Amino acid sequence: MKTEFSFQNLKYDMSASLVVFLVALPLCLGIGLASTGRTDLVFSGIIAGIVGGIIVGGLSGSSLGVSGPAAGLVVIVLGAIKTLGSFEALLMAGVLAGAIQLLAGFLRAGIIAYYFPSSVIKGMLAAIGLTLILKEIPHALGYDKDFVGDFAFAQADSHNTFSEIYYAIQYNSPGAILISIVSLVLLILFERPFMRKIGLFRFLPGALFVVLTGIALNALMAAINPAWILRNDHLVQLPVASTAGEFLSFFTLPDFGALSNPQVYVTAVTLAIVASLETLLCVDATDKLDPYKRNTPTNRELKAQGVGNMISAMIGGLPITQVIVRSSANINAGGRSKLSAMMHGGILLLSAIFIPRFLNLIPLASLAVILLMVGYKLSKVSLYRTMYKLGWEQFLPFFITVVAILATDLLKGIAIGMVFAIFFILRKNYKHAYHYTQEKNHDGEIIKIRLSEEVTFLNKASIQLSLDDLPENSKVIIDGSHSVAIDHDVLEIIQDFKMQTAPNRNIKVETIGIRDVALSSH
């Protein structure tokens, strides 16, 4: 299975691109509104989605990753607009951030991705799945106070993830519930094997039928029970241009005069770092979900993201990252090559130009159910069972990452999970720095300490404690013959023990495979 374009998989990629488009549309609009705080700038999210699909999708080496505006950058972008004084100044910072990412790609900074523990990445996937479920329930019930795509526990509307569900149940919309139930039944049916035997349904995704059914049901309610009709906040709200000139007005140029403002550079560095970290995390997660187990070249991904962010900011778009929700939707919909990501960007562009009024008939309840299914597939019970069977050293960082993301937001939760994962790695490293054996013969008690292949400064404490605990009048053999590298700090500890501590306790020390030159340099 190739990473690049694969026209032999066109039917799969076309079907998947439609699903990704339906998932991306409300996310782009929701993040666009939340990031700018202005309805006249909501199209900035669509621009980012278009560029993320067509440009980043084309340049990236990821087979199934999908890029676009990310909820993790909302707070940074919104704060930066206030600090810099204008959206145009933010765009200038976005151009610089893209240039920094491009440089990072050439400097091979993408290697950072290989240092994320698997337990944390899987915890991130499970947490995003749970978050999607919890966050989309209010939209499915017709209570749309929070923007689609928000992953933070504390919300801008003064609610949190759980209180939002409480108010959604209390102030639900019967029309939204009806559409959600029908949509959910349709999606479950489309998962059944017998549906794939029907010729039409082999190519057209269930998500498309769910959306069309939602539009039809909402229109039907106008005739049967007008009180149930979904309007305004409960529908997609894509800006509609009456003329070509009005459509072009949705695009904004950056303020190059803002280059004289030092805060622009601070914002650019912040955006570059956060966007790159979120991208690399999603790259790792997407590769784990890829059924063909392909690996994304991370340095190339940073370059693609850099170019994408520069172009997006130059035409009025929000900052871009690879996004796990869209990427996982692509995978679940059967996408096979990067063509699906590129086509979803093209569909976003064409639909924004030619059919915005039709798109504005789509109920958010229908789209919420699609995202609910994506969330369920990311956070299946089987994943928790598998991680539990791997033992506490894998399960605890995984579970803590899940809880931390649910309680805070994506990046903070990942950071907390990383701390615990590193603790368990250090703990394991501490225990396995060497092999300790103790035996008796006619010469008395002999203790053998065989050092592991790699002995770093992280092993100092455990080796020091073991040497301190050696009994007096014994003999110890420290064997480094199997070690490829022994850190200088550890060599100093061995030297100090051999030359000073051991003679005072009548302990005979023999070293094997430990270079005398390194010891004598003490």
UniProtKB/TrEMBL annotation:
TM region positions: 12-35, 41-59, 90-107, 114-134, 171-190, 202-224, 265-286, 346-376, 396-426
GO process annotations (BP): transmembrane transport
Membrane topology: Multi-pass membrane protein
UniProt GO cellular component terms: membrane
All copies of domain SLC26A/SulP transporter, residue ranges: 10-392
Alphabetic keyword roster: Membrane, Transmembrane, Transmembrane helix
Pfam families: Sulfate_transp (PF00916)
PANTHER family: SULFATE TRANSPORTER
Protein name: SulP family inorganic anion transporter
Organism this protein belongs to: Dawidia soli
